[in-house]
Specification:
235 residues, alpha/beta, Rossmann fold, 2 domains, five-stranded parallel beta sheet, globular
Amino acid sequence: MIEVVLFDLDGTLLPMDQDEFTREYFRLLAKKLIPYGYEPKKLVDSIWKGTAAMVKNDGSCTNEAAFWREFSSIYGEKVLADMPVFDEFYCREFNDARTICGYNAKAAETVHRLKKLGLRTALATNPIFPSTATENRIRWAGLVPEDFELYTTYENTRYCKPNPLYYTSIAKQLNVKAEHCLMVGNDAIEDVAAQAAGMGIFLLADCLINKAGIDISVYPHGGFTELMAYIGDLL
């Protein structure tokens, strides 16, 4: 019996080409930070190293702490004084990256329909962004943060995809058994990892990421119409 439906965001509720979005994100961030003495290439390399630190997080600290510990080890403690500049970026300039993303009205419609069916909804987006950035991307998809009982950010999470403990920790926060959760995502590695935590999975194929060339026919998959049919059968 499904109680909670977990949704990925980028490429799932929010259509996008991940590589194109990443390039535009870094372009905007570099433009913001160049006046503060950040050389673009070093900045991008350092962001990637901070991201890697979050992906490797063993749960001993929040992803936010893991990122800034790595980032400040590169630039020195003085970088922490620039944290308000980063916060301002995610509140303002980051929204310009919306032009890189698509829009699918069925995404919001599906979330709202599931809630009307009495199911709980949560946003299981890889928690490598601060809450402000995540909340903005939720709005780009035609939803609001309040549509979700929980949405993972680097402030409130201690693991990343594809670590199964990321999914286990979500179930714990939601006070639900993992086997009563369905993870809906577009990545054949990162989102399928929910299966190792005991969750059901559904691959949304519209913006599928399948770098390992996995045979997705072994998993429930399709678009939002197929997702609703699949959930209907489970209920």
